Amino acid sequence: MDFKIQTAELGALAEVGVDALVVVLGGDALAKGLDAVVAKHAQAAIKLGDFALKAGQALTLTHAEGIKAPRLVLAASGKTTLAAARAALAAGLGQIKSRGAVSAAVAFVGFDAGLAESLAEQTALAGTEAVYLYRHTKPSAPAAPKLAKLALLTAKAELKAAKAGLARGEAIAAGIELARECANRPANYATPTYLGEVVQGLGKSHGLKVEVLDKKAVEKLGMGSFLSVAQGSDEPLRFIVARYEGAAKTVAPVVLVGKGITFDTGGISLKPGAEMDEMKFDMGGAASVIGTLRAVAELKPKLNLVMIVAACENMPSGRAVKPGDVVTSMSGQTIEILNTDAEGRLILCDALTYAERFKPAVVVDVATLTGACVIALGGIRSGMYASDDALAASLTAAGDAALDPCWRMPLDEDYAEGLKSNFADVANIAGRAGGSITAAKFLQRFTSKYRWGHLDIAGTAWKGGAAKGSTGRPVGLLTHFVLSHAK
Ligand code: BES
Ligand code: MN
Ligand code: ZN
């Protein structure tokens, strides 16, 4: 999708020459200053009972009198919040995306001027999402939508904000698209090796330092926990490290760590068969940090970022790790593996120890970690944990600004009680209760050297059912969070 900003006064929308003019109407009254011809058509449609200024309403008028664009799309948001505007824009684009229009222009009417930057960002995101279609392993997928050019109509006073927002939105959209594509590809395509190649490719195209470690190098580092998960699979593991350097070497980096289980069968603690295919999405954390790396590298902020992905399959086999096995993590702590399906924390703990070498300003890990988090928060908010209140506030703010929200969960020491083991320093599972929290408590043991945040994205990284597919979350949250560290 090609994006551009075009200055236009809201009173002169009728003159805009594109294939489709999309007007997002905020609030329950037609805003003052709205183009009189557009307002006349909206009023007429309301009078006919074909349209209302309510969330979810969208209507296309063809060759509307006095409107230069052959299609006038009216989309109502109801509320004048950013989220409502985004939803209305998506509905508006939904009216035209798979039809004849190649170019479209979007205008937001009735929204606070303070939202201009965020509205521009969301325009890029909604435009990209409207035309994304998975096709890598589906040659019969329909041809890409014709819609290819999207202009944002902006009043002169809001031009600067809109430009900044659009640039950020384009970068985040590219990151989300990469994350979705990686996660949507099946596990026999999106292998650990493939993820390594994707990051190598980003390194080349964006001038990043990339290291892809194989089993031998991981053995040398003493990552006994990560290795124990990988040992059941014939698919070789990868430990991927990439560095974006936008500030002086002395500036402590933000470190993002992603869970890259390219397929999670559960291992010897085998999962039930129903919906097991969805465990190809168990590298959603990895996909999101890779996508964030791309977004950040495109925006070139003045900060340093390190991305770490631990990638392998979790498979049962004659060589697979068994319940009761004790392994030694890179930190030196021994772990009793009581359930081989609690494998995410086993690969992350070694990645979190590895992160120490960067003397990070902050480390945030991202993982499709627990079914319990899906039960707790569903698919709306990611579970968020933070070692201090300021970090929690900053992750919350990033999620809100990006419309990619999270919700803070507790880390009371009492939750760690169930992780005690008679045979190792720690067990990899506690009881069923509070499963997302006990997983976080396990990880916390490996993060004593830095400020630490953890996102459990088991509910938000992908959708099941008819719309099965990766969401690309939380690339938006993470990109906003990383950018908040720019000098
Ligand atoms: N990848 C899963 C978590 C998951 C399950 C995400 C379902 C989304 C949907 C993770 O590796 C896992 O299997 N966790 C176990 C932990 C348990 C054994 C303590 C779980 O949540 O059941
Ligand atoms: Mn598992
Ligand atoms: Zn898993």
Structure description:
The protein has 487 residues and is an alpha/beta fold. It folds into two domains: 2-155, Leucine Aminopeptidase, subunit E, domain 1 (3-Layer(aba) Sandwich), CATH 3.40.220; 176-483, Zn peptidases (Aminopeptidase, 3-Layer(aba) Sandwich). The chain is 34% helix and 22% strand. The chain has 13 helices and 19 strands. A hairpin with an 8-residue loop joins strand 3 (58-62) and strand 4 (71-78). Helix 8 crosses helix 13. It is elongated, with a radius of gyration of 24 Å. The relative contact order is 0.11. The mean pLDDT is 98. Bound molecules: ligand BES, manganese (II) ion (MN) and zinc ion. Residues 264, 266, 314, 341, 343 line the site of manganese (II) ion.
Q: Structurally, how many domains make up the residues? A: 2
* CATH topology value of the largest domain: Aminopeptidase
What fraction strand?
A: 15-25%
Helix content: 25-40%
SSE-based structural type: alpha/beta
Largest sheet: 8 strands, mixed
Low-confidence stretches: none
Q: What's the shape?
A: elongated
Number of H/I helices: 13
Which ligands, by name, code or SMILES, are bound? ligand BES, manganese (II) ion, zinc ion
How would you state the average pLDDT, rounded? 98
How many β strands by DSSP? 19
Termini separation = 31 Å
Whole-angstrom Rg: 24 Å
Strand order of the largest sheet: 7-8-10-9-13-17-14-15
Q: Under the CATH scheme, which architecture of the largest domain would be assigned?
A: 3-Layer(aba) Sandwich
- The CATH homologous superfamily of the largest domain is named Zn peptidases
* Name of the CATH class of the largest domain: Alpha Beta
